[in-house]
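New to this. Please check both lines:
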Amino acid sequence: MNTERIYQLIFSFGSAVATALSPTLPYILLCTAAVLADCFTAWQLDKRVRKAYPDKTSRNSGKFKSSHFGSVLVTLLQVYLLLTFAHFLHVYVTESLPFNALKLAAGLVIGWQLWSCLENMSSCNGAKWAMVLQQIMVDKTARHFDIDPAVLEGLTGRRPEHLGDGTGEPMNNGRQRPSAFMATTLKPKQVVILGTAHGSNVPGKCSPDKKFREFRFSRDVITLLKPKLEALGYLVFVDMPADEVPSPQGTELSLRCRYVNGICKKFGKDNCIYVSIHVNAAGSDGQWHDARGFAVYVARSCSAASKRLARTICDLAISRGLRGNRAVPSEHYWQANFYVLRNTACPAVLTENLFQDNRADVEFLSSQAGKEAVATLHLDAIKSFFAE
């Protein structure tokens, strides 16, 4: 058989197959678009998680990366084979029945992919519509990324069972990772959740000369404070350690509260406290002002434990010369309608550590000694609160 004859047979066979499968082409295109849409929304999820929790995601984490491209091709091949089988099933077996097997198979594939897209879009998303979907859909953050289950619990209100053993450490390909907490029996009232100030992408929040930035100071203090607390046996979490925070601000604040409340659900709200560390400002006019000193806030309607924690911090700040030049309320705490105070389940306070628009305060806070003083103040106050 000569080469020309072989080519003719191949062409004839290909034409016959194409003719036989031509009715499946529209459904193949629709299913392919659905699979690619799933990939695109997975990529968007990757970006959201990396932006919100860059320190919680390893460099090579995430489902949407080149090493997974082969999985996408396998999925497409499986879909094409399914549609081909459904087409021949309809032509030769079920043609007389009141349903089209090809259309049914395509509908199932497209529905499955659209459901997956919605899960990708709602995962790690603080929008109201996403929160509704999270009640009935799987949060895929755990499936796509190697993240501490406590973080996921803060986002979803539930811990994915396949990720860990409840110790706070994820699983690695089915094997437990070594954990300092696994060998430690946690005592009640040992959970401290530290709150960072608004991120570098939030306008304002700085000294008039823009040399002092609240987001940087807050995170520097927490970097000093967290290991000191852990050395004493406390279990410590940080709500948003990354320099940038999700936007708009409503999403940021909602995610912070859901993070805190997820941890409260896991360890018990009576065993947790939330301390958000900020710097005050007397005005928003970009000018230097005279007001200076320390303040600590609680929600207008809060627990007795929140008030006791606030008084403990305030009294210690006053004893260390941080009172400033403003009158201190008789209760030794201030009250405000701050979102993160009124929407968190555990005792919660927000500390305003001096003023970012007072020259003397900024000079002190900018120094390493100032950061150490603020970190030590919070450390000693937390110790005192738990000791009572």
User: Anything to note?
Assistant: The chain has 13 helices and eight strands.
